[in-house]
Design brief:
The protein contains 9 helices and 13 strands. The chain is an alpha+beta fold. The protein folds into 3 domains: 56 residues, DnaJ domain (Helix Hairpins, Orthogonal Bundle), CATH 1.10.287; 147 residues, HSP40/DNAj peptide-binding domain (Sandwich), CATH 2.60.260; 86 residues, Sandwich (HSP40/DNAj peptide-binding domain). The chain has a 5-stranded mixed beta sheet with strand order 1-2-3-7-6. Helix 2 runs antiparallel to helix 3. The protein is elongated.
């Protein structure tokens, strides 16, 4: 899985060097393995260092902004080679986006001036989305450029993210629709990317095709709320269950579990079910937090009303008194 370097540091693409440095220092202190003993901290710290090494260098950052993660594969003299292959027509690099019916599809790089005219034709260089491509600019003589990486959203439910498995995703582009079978690992989190090697735009000459990155987008759920790999859920309980304690069922992304409600539990109390959140292939699984919600019957029967009235007469409990 891969992440956007700007997202790793938590800064915008227009962030200045001071902001990038401050963001790195702030998060590096938080995730340094000597300070943070969480199993994920070391990997997070490595990601931070990788992102900072790229974005802190203006030249490296400029190449990353142009080519994304493929910037290391692009030759230093790419402008001269493109200019020569295009007969010196020029035309600067620019990124652009488009939306397909099957999901938002984003091309990570393209060529041409800002008005869309002149320069080097994008489809000639990199091929149309999901294939295509021509002989290259001006016949493509001597021009070898890797295919464009492409990116699209992969919507998943909380249950899908928990279980993983194979999923079909259909994306639409200028060359039509294409359906992919994607192997989603259990425990993916929102924003993670799944790489489909060689499924992006075609390269010119003998250059390899680009990759297709599917960015996980976990959809809002009527019951579950995610915080990383931790899952939060409301747990309705009856007044007598809250007062006396009880063992009640609680929904989890993997099915129904049992939780013990301690006596004298009020609304807002959180019960932790260790390991019942999203799986983590690199460390402990996430937890599930069930937050108690004390519910009263919508209608009282005669005997229920008598019992509540008797409780009201005999109890000295005042919920509005400071405790």
């Amino acid at each position: 899985m891969a992440r956007d370097y700007y997202q790793v540091l938590g800064v915008s693409r227009g962030a200045g060097q001071d902001e990038i440095q401050q963001a790195f220092r702030r998060q590096a202190r938080r995730y340094h393995p000597d300070v943070n003993k969480d199993p994920d901290a070391e990997e997070r710290f490595k990601d931070l260092n990788d992102a900072y090494s790229v974005l802190s260098d203006p030249k490296t950052r400029a190449r990353y902004d142009r080519f994304g993660e493929d910037f290391r594969k692009i030759p230093e003299d790419w402008e001269e080679r493109v200019g020569a292959g295009a007969g010196g027509g020029g035309g600067g690099f620019r990124g652009w986006t488009t939306a397909g019916d099957g999901g938002r599809v984003r091309f990570t790089r393209g060529f041409g001036d800002d008005t869309g005219g002149g320069g080097v034709d994008f489809e000639d260089l990199f091929g149309a989305f999901f294939g295509g491509g021509g002989a290259g600019p001006a016949g493509g003589a001597g021009v070898t450029i890797p295919g464009a990486d492409q990116e699209a959203d992969l919507p998943l439910t909380v249950e899908d993210a928990y279980r993983g498995g194979r999923h079909a995703v259909t994306l639409a582009g200028p060359a039509g629709q294409r359906t992919f079978e994607v192997n989603v690992p259990p425990g993916v989190t929102d924003g993670q990317r799944i790489r489909l090697a060689g499924q992006g735009g075609r390269g010119t000459g003998d250059a390899p095709a680009g990759d297709l990155y599917l960015r996980v987008r976990i959809q809002p759920h009527p019951r579950f709320r995610l915080d990383g790999r931790n899952v939060h859920v409301h747990l309705p309980v009856a007044p007598w269950e809250a007062a006396l304690g009880a063992t009640v069922p609680v929904p989890t992304p993997g099915g129904t579990a049992k939780v013990t409600v301690p006596p004298a539990s009020s609304t807002g109390r959180r019960l932790r079910l260790r390991g019942q959140g999203l799986p983590n292939p690199r460390g402990p699984d996430g937890d599930l937090y069930a937050e108690i919600r004390v519910m009263v019957p919508p209608r009282l029967g005669d005997r229920e009303r008598e019992l509540f009235e008797e409780l009201a007469r005999t109890s000295s409990f005042d919920p509005r008194r400071e405790r």
